[in-house]
Request: fold
Amino acid sequence: MGLHLSSTFMFFFFINSATAHDNHPLPCLLPSIHSPKQFFDESIIAKLNRSKTQLKKGDTAFLDDMRDVITETFNPPPPSNWYVRAG
Reply:
């Protein structure tokens, strides 16, 4: 019950903040997103574009932008027991 209420409140907070102004706290979580409202709107358009009944596809230039694509993977070194005392 509490989880459902929390999810509903967070969605309401997102919608309320996104419609009130563009300075939404979401960009601190996703730094590459400059406009959460634009991200939200284009996500809905992208979902509608996947429909086979949709004849005209909407433009999702913001979602299609590939400037922030992750191109490298960091592989950390294996753990070491260099500073661990035996015993």
Notes: The chain has one domain: 2-64. The radius of gyration is 21 Å. Helices lie at 2-20, 36-49, 61-64. Residues 2-64 form one domain.
